[in-house]
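Sample entry copied in:
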Amino acid sequence: MDRFPKAANVDFHSPLDLSKAAAAVLDDEGRISGWASSAQRLLGHAPEDVLGRPAAGLVAATPGQRLSALCRAHRPRGAVLDLCCREGRTLRAAVTLSPLAHRGVAATVVVAAELEAQRCWEAQLALLQGLATESSVGLTIFDTEGRVVWGNVSTDLELAGIAQYIGRPAADLFPEGEFISRHHPPDEDQIMEHVLATGEPILGMHYRGRAPADPVREHVWSCSYHRLVDARGEPLGLFEESLDITDRYRAQERLSLLVRAGKRIGASLDVRRTAAELADVAVPQLADEVLVDLPPAVIEGRQPPTGSAPGHSLLRMHGRTPEEFRTSPVSYPPSSPQALSLVTSRPVVDASRNEAPDGAGSAPAQSCLFVPLLTREAVLGLATFRRSTNPDPFGAEEQALAVELAERAAVGIDNARRYTSQHAAALVLQRSLLPQHLPEQSAVDVAYRYLPADSRVGVGGDWFDVIPLSGARVGLTVGDVVGHGVHAAATMGRLRATVRTLALLDLDPAELLTRLDDLVAQDSGSDADDGLSDEALGVTCLYAIYDPVSGRCVWASAGHPSPIVADANGSVALSALAPGPPLGLGGLPYENVEMSLSSGSVVAFFTDGVVEDRRTDIDSGIDRLAHVLSWQRCPVEELCDRALSTLPPGAQADDATLLLVRTRRLGTDHVVDLELPPDPAMVAEARTLTERQLEAWGLSDLSFTAALVVSELVTNGIRYATGPVMLRLIRDRCLLCEVSDSAHTAPHLRRARRDDEGGRGLFLVAQVSQRWGTRYTASGKTIWAELALP
């Protein structure tokens, strides 16, 4: 350790030192009597050229009297002179003349060095002196064993006296400190060994600890390590540079915290997630734990209460993820710092020792900061930042940071509250617009499932419906509205009602979609700003009609996925349906697709949410659903559950609607057909056949009413149509009487006057039947009536 100088004795050789500078000797008459080799190197003159000559001849533009005066001085004098070199140039040099007097011999020793080198040396010396005595950069020298050898003034101040650490290992300087680099925190002994062994410096390591001179406040230093070697290149030890960057580091930390908060807090549109995001961002940089206290109304998406005592009836949420969050009721006494923060709408610091929340689960807090969650309209709640391991109280900058985080969280919570309210309203609206109870019918067994999208996405516009039609037939529809939210749900409800209305007109699927497309196109072209037109554009819809008498199923699609059919044998196929354009776009016609389905076949109608997955294509989803339908012998309710259980785990990106139907066929013992020639005498035969068939079915109580209805319908068909008339009786949940003819004109119900000879037939049919109507076919029309079974 003796090889290292102390700070007060730092000494380096000057360029004017005799071992390095040009030297000459002058006699008492100013002539050169001695000329060193260093003088020859500096000025280029050989000894034989200058010895015995006046020294004034080597000085340019300087009177010889001045040099003589310097030589006659009784003490050393310095000056800046321009000296003449051998090649004719001049050299500005720093010159020192030291007179000698010994035993009557007078002489002067002249030492000269280039002025620039002298000034550079002086600057370096001043720099070293400043680093040792004035610099804020801490400099510490360690020997090859890692023991403290020397420290400058800055290190002396941080350690409250460097002398007590001389000869001690580096670990004794900051025993509780640690490196906080982004990579694995290294050990200081390993750092020193690496620098000593390789000579490779290590720069910019961040070190956190408490200085002996300031043990209350935690500091951060930027440390660099360099190896020291002697003239032979042997390691002497190493020195450490340390700069206190606490303020800068904390400012960068706060900035990165705010950047992370801007990306994280409030992005979920969920109250609990937003509270968890605040805790996740603030811990552990700002606090050890964050508690969020909110009124139950805010959590449920309702308006926060007004006029109540602050701190009453709140729910405390603590945790760093929604899954870890625990909720417990909490209230604040009026004199508590929490109540003061809520009343004044300002942050309040409580540096007293606080108990853990709920009496357990956390260490007692060293310091607490209470920040109200404020919006422009109301106080939403309170955020509590707790420190249990860090004894430092919350400073002014940390309070400002906590307030900004709380403001971001308050905005996020308020947005989440509003979104929750709107999402709940949209969900209630959509569920109220979807079928609450499927109608009773005999054509198909039906099961359905509807899964709303994740709450962060919003309620979509999926819909389905099962519509009983005349002739024991059933209409089946499924559709999807573009977009999410209340507007999408309202558009869905309006379109579903329109489809049901058009379906009750007994339109075939292609004709129904054409008329629906016209209505959507008219709405989109109107100037009404009701928020529904945009959602209606591009909506998809599929409509199908199944007839259990013939087993015939006809469907058409407006941009909707084709249904999947599993026949009674278990083979599954995607129907050959060529979908037309989505509704509202127009341009292409809609076409019917007809298929004969055996009894027990399962048909799956679905929306995109059932088969779409972000990780795979839609074909994979269709294959997955088709595989489920291969188990078609299971009840349709079980098939629905199986299908939805295959959906990928995680949040639904879109609504998923699945409608499964298992077809039935009405046996020949439930249907009777009779072709009648256009002869009025056939009316009596039709009436007789009806009475006999009802007796065979055990429905004799309906004979009179049914015979009256058949008489009137057959009479109208024979009177106004050409060609034969078809009579059909269907025994289902009611008795259906149908008369078909080749005419395309529809009869109209009217009130006959006393003197009218006709016009009372349909009036009688309407009075005795529970429903009646007309549907058109390619060959004519069918008038039907339904009679309730006794």
